[in-house]
Amino acid sequence: MNLFKQFFHYAKLFLSMPNRLRILVVTEGTEAIKYITVKLKHITLGALGGMVFFFLVTIVFAYFIGLWVAERKMMEVSSKNQILKSQMMTLSTKVKALQQKLGELMKTDEMMRTGLGLPTINEETRQAGIGGTINPLTIEDETDELTKEIQLLEREMILQQQSYQEISEGIKRQQAIVEHTPSIRPMATGFFGSSFGYRRDPFTGKIAMHEGIDINVPVGTPVYATAPGVVKIAKYLSNYGQVVVIDHYYGYQTVYAHLSSYRVRVGEKVKRGDIIAFSGNSGRSTGPHLHYEVRQNNRPVDPMDFLFDTFAFTR
Predict the structure, then answer these.
(1) Cβ count within 10 A of residue 230
(2) Assigned domain for 256 exists
(3) CB 200 within 8 Å of CB 206
């Protein structure tokens, strides 16, 4: 606006000047003098026309320069979009491959949890939104969809890590249970007498439950701990005579009865194969032997199910 005001200001000045302008022209090397008379209106119109022409040329030039700059920017944006789209397609392919791999891991995870007796992860928890396709709409749409896919994939990976941690702990627990499960013969020699189950009591003649097995051996035969644990009882009990009870944790206990003596004390930790006592004929017994029991969660179970040939004495 200031430019136009100045233009009209100078135009008024020109219009207020005299109508004619005489110009003196002297040619060099001669004495000839000429006078040129020019109307000021013509000069003014010429100047105005030149200014208008210059103004129009400037506008047109600026317009085409703007178009050229805009076209260059559009080309740059289009090129960047193509590169970004290519990168997104590559990333999308990798995400789908990870989803497929994760699906295989989930199947393995479920099998392992079932094998370890762990509760399986329900479908509602599993469905963290993994899956789906990317709709090729705009770069922004694709970016939002891909971001969502990656976030959901990250969530599922965290869930899988937590599950594997639980599985690892389950495996360690199973290993500990196996290590603490009674699994060897409590004596290296002898032969089996009365077995586990109902039998006729040798003292009363009545049918009664025999909660262990008898191994007939001479008095003083070494008795071995059948699994790692801690001694809970080491004393004389009327029916059992000299008896040792070992707690192996994880619900297992073993009983060694009718001993002649024992060499452990209450609270002592023992390993599988340690000599803990010697056989005898103490308590309610009909002859030299070892009465051996296995209890699982305070219930007597058949010790024969826990005599594994693959386990040997450690000493």
Answers:
(1) 14
(2) yes
(3) yes
Q: Between helices 40-116 and 2-16, what is the axis angle to 10°? A: 170
In this structure, the answer to whether residues 174 and 249 fall within a common structural domain is: no
Give the per-residue pLDDT at 227. Answer: 94
Assess if residue 314 is contained within a domain. Answer: no
Q: How many Cα atoms occupy the beta-carbon half-sphere of 179 within 13 Å? A: 10
pLDDT at 114: 74
> Along the chain (315 residues), what's the average pLDDT of each consecutive run of 10 residues?
62 61 64 66 72 83 85 80 75 75 75 72 58 49 70 76 79 86 91 87 80 94 96 94 96 96 96 96 91 95 82 42
Q: Is residue 311 part of a domain?
A: no
| CATH label of the domain that carries residue 223 | 2.70.70.10
Read off the pTM.
Answer: 0.56
Range of the domain at 123: 91-179
Question: Any bridge partners for residue 237, and if so which?
Answer: 241
The tally of CA atoms less than 13 A away on the side-chain side of residue 91 is 16
Residue corresponding to tokens 């899988």:
160
Single out the residue in 77, 105, 138 at which a domain terminates. 77
Classify residue 138: in a domain, yes or no: yes
**How many CB atoms neighbour CB 194 within 10 A?**
17
